[in-house]
# Entry
Amino acid sequence: MALVNTTKAAADSLAEHSESLGTWITHHIKNGPEWHPFPNVHLHLPHIPPFDFLGMHIDLSITNHVVMLWVAGFIVLAMFLLFLKPKNKIQTGFGTLLEMLVVFIRDEVAIANMGEKDGRRFTPFLLTAFIFILISNLLGLIPMFSTPTSNINVTAGLALTTFGATQYFGVKEQGLIGYYKNLVPHGVPILLWPLMFIIEIMGLIAKHVALTIRLFANMNAGHIVLFAFLGLIILFKSYLISPVSIGFGVFVYFLEFLVAFIQAYIFTVLSALFIGMSVNPEH
Amino acid sequence: MLDIDPGMIIWTWITFFVVLVILYKIALKPILAAIDSREKSIHDDIEKAQKQRDEAQALLAKHQEMLDQAEAEAQKLFKESKAQADKAREELIEKAREESAKLVGKAKEEIEQQKESALASLKEEVADLAVGAAEKIILQNLDAKKQKVVVDEYIKSMPKTLKN
# Structure
């Protein structure tokens, strides 16, 4: 009976605010200056006055997703500091899992895609990226929290980090001219070279844009589908639809759980591949 | 949903790099070093074990060889001593046989001699007896009945040893 009442109340409030289902879904996914840890609790986050820099309107206000990033970062640090004991030769409990993760990223992601020397060099970066993105992805599956990686600016920031790494280490390894010259495959006719150069630059940008969109879209899609299934209850204004909605909702939840791992892994592998390609042009 | 917000990108960078630096300094650097040193120690241990196994194998082969040698030596010694013992035994038996043969020969000779002398003395006695008996018969000149009595008396008077 309580369930019926809650459903009715939710549908009524929705009707009252004359909101459509679409705006209801976007409202739950959107970034905002408030954090709703519990129903009817609104935490107003500090607002910092925006300023203009190089023609960009920069707003450094603390938003919902910024807090989520901090939470994710805090969880990552807490996990590694509490459970991993580097002084012990053999880890115990949860530390074994973390150590397995470290070895997995080092051997299967970094060294497998970048070679022995560079793999070891970039392991800390890739490992941090993997665990940070993974925790961020999983955060949205816990009530009270939302997924920071479902914000395109966050994924863009992460992809730009990879992009920056490819450019910085590429130039550092091969020199400014050497790096951009090596972008174009060897053996291209001299007349085609400028065209190929432009195409390669576009490809370089497209790769990282794809990296951004892939993570963002995957993280958003699950949430939207989840809310759409639950929204059916409100749309039909009938609790009879709830078994279907909740059944599919649970299914999508587990699917999201899987996708969170897969996307974190894909982002890390592709980052390793891109950095590896720019550091070793022969590959 | 798709609007670009540079502030958010900057916050992402700040958060990510703060996490990266702290994680690297406090956890990743030592744990990667620890994993490396552990892997190295495992590698070294395996190599050492391999070497020790090879050494042990060589030692075992050497010992086996030594053992074989010792056994061969023992076999040889055993055979030698056995041959020696056999020879000694043969000799002893031969000697004993000779000795016994000699003894037997000597005994036989003695027996022969004794027999000879016994027969000679017996003959002498018998001759004496016959002479004595004839003497008595002749002296008394008696009838047949008396003669028989005389002979019986004589026989009775003979030493017991000669009765049979």
Summary: Chain B touches chain A through 31 residues (CB under 8 Å).
